[in-house]
């Protein structure tokens, strides 16, 4: 007999906008299929035993939880000691980029997620990433021939502080470049270990400028030190870690890969939408970095 574990998302309909969120999530997910998107198995819209509206979504269960608890276990009361190494984080970044590229460029109507952040990225048993929570997603009106320039004229855009692009705060329309900004911030957070809302970011300093000021020569001052920690890491990353210099610094080839990833994060999170790269280009460049890293370090294994 076939069995599987599922995750059930029950909406709190007392919360403002919950019904609208339910409809948005159903509309966004009903016709899309991609290996890096959380798969909706079914949904329920009914009346509970007390006569109140009841709405729920049923998804595949993700054994390794959210990216949030892996990046910040100490803040989430999580006792896990495992850390994500460089290559694992790179694979996750590629997974997320691939999902956004699909939503923006390969759906009949382009979809903007509008709330990309670590807690909305779920990891399965193999640490493959799946983008979830489409409660704020927008289907774009096809106003131009370019999906990146298509826009929706919905008002009252919500999101998460630190990940929401600056143009949304001044009433600009939703475009795919908003997701690109969120992805850029996510990428910087994944490889520095710092949230965009970290206490260190005051007096005009933000995560983007924090990283930008240290590239390329001082990159190791901002990189999460657990990225190249030998131990519970992939073989290629362990080989790279063992190739460190005596003073603990990494060799130039590894540093170049780290710098390249962070540069993509910076390019995606620039203030002006027109200056951001597309998710198609981001996906391609991240795959190139992965291939370079594996080529240089698998031979050391």
Automatic annotation (TrEMBL):
Residues 1-294 form the Protein kinase domain. It catalyses: L-seryl-[protein] + ATP = O-phospho-L-seryl-[protein] + ADP + H(+); L-threonyl-[protein] + ATP = O-phospho-L-threonyl-[protein] + ADP + H(+). It is a single-pass membrane protein. Gene3D superfamilies: Phosphorylase Kinase, domain 1 (3.30.200.20), Transferase(Phosphotransferase) domain 1 (1.10.510.10). InterPro entries: Kinase-like_dom_sf, LRR_receptor-like_kinase, Prot_kinase_dom, Ser-Thr/Tyr_kinase_cat_dom. Pfam families: PK_Tyr_Ser-Thr. Its EC number is 2.7.11.1. One of its GO terms (molecular function) is ATP binding. One of its GO terms (cellular component) is plasma membrane. The keyword Cell membrane applies. It is found in: Cell membrane. Keywords: ATP-binding, Cell membrane, Glycoprotein, Kinase, Leucine-rich repeat, Membrane, Nucleotide-binding, Phosphoprotein, Receptor, Repeat, Serine/threonine-protein kinase, Signal, Transferase, Transmembrane, Transmembrane helix. The keyword rRNA-binding does not apply. Its main location: membrane. This is non-specific serine/threonine protein kinase. It comes from Manihot esculenta (Cassava).
